[in-house]
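Re: [ENG-882] Designed sequences occasionally contain unexpected residues at chain ends

Forwarding the minimal case from QA. Structure tokens:
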């Protein structure tokens, strides 16, 4: 088990976004320990997960909460949702132990499919930041409606440095909902993350307020990540101005 005895002391924050495909890898096996292994490799302060819960029945978390507590340094952001679910329509936020969660929300967005978004205001060792995790629709028109609903939520809230990330389901380099988000939150250049075996598309994206300076970013392409899901995780490190 990794050594989680110390907390970060640098004034930077690292975020990651990962469509974990309900824990089902390319070998068609559901293996939550493998997903946690990938997250531990990335070692981010904040993680946005997509497809974190099973789709049917109780929609239980694909990662048992006891495994999350014992085998990682992550704590799920609490949502007023189904008792066995980690997220809202599969969208979940994890934070490193020691990060204060001031508030959290489930964002109800226009949808044809069971999609959603989640948001939280966090205090990361003295730096307050708002984070939004999302998994948008396959339909391009619906994605734009969803993006505008998320941005309207941000406009109605407190003016905070904001990071938006998730699976946008947009194959084009920059169009549609990507343009909507990047108007006020420039896109961070991470790289191609789908499909995991041979990445060709940038379906997974991170956007951030201009007050957050991206110091580094990329796609986490380890041997474990290449097997654990059909998406690779993306990540970025920021400094608050």
């Amino acid at each position: 088990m990794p050594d989680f005895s110390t907390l970060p002391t640098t004034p930077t924050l690292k975020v990651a976004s990962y469509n974990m495909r309900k824990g089902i890898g390319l070998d068609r096996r559901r293996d939550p320990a493998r997903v946690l292994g990938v997250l531990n490799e990335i070692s981010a302060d904040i993680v946005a997960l997509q497809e974190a819960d099973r789709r049917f029945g109780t929609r239980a978390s694909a990662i048992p909460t006891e495994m999350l507590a014992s085998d990682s340094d992550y704590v799920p952001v609490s949502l007023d949702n189904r008792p066995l679910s980690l997220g809202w329509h599969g969208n979940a936020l994890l934070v490193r132990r020691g990060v204060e969660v001031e508030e959290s929300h489930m964002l109800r967005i226009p949808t044809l499919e069971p999609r959603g978004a989640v948001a939280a205001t966090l205090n990361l060792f003295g730096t307050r930041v708002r984070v939004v995790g999302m998994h948008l629709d396959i339909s391009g028109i619906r994605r734009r409606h969803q993006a505008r609903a998320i941005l309207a939520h941000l406009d109605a809230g407190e003016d905070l440095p904001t990071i938006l990330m998730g699976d946008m389901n947009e194959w084009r380099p920059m169009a549609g909902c990507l343009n909507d988000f990047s108007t006020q939150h420039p896109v961070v250049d991470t790289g191609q993350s789908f499909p995991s075996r041979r990445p060709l598309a940038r379906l997974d994206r991170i956007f951030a307020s201009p007050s957050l300076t991206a110091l580094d970013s990329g796609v986490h392409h380890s041997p474990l990540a290449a097997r654990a899901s059909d998406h690779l995780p993306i990540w970025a490190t920021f400094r608050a101005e």
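QA comment: On inspection the terminal residues look reasonable. The CA atoms of residues 11 and 108 lie 33 Å apart. Proposing we downgrade this to a documentation issue.
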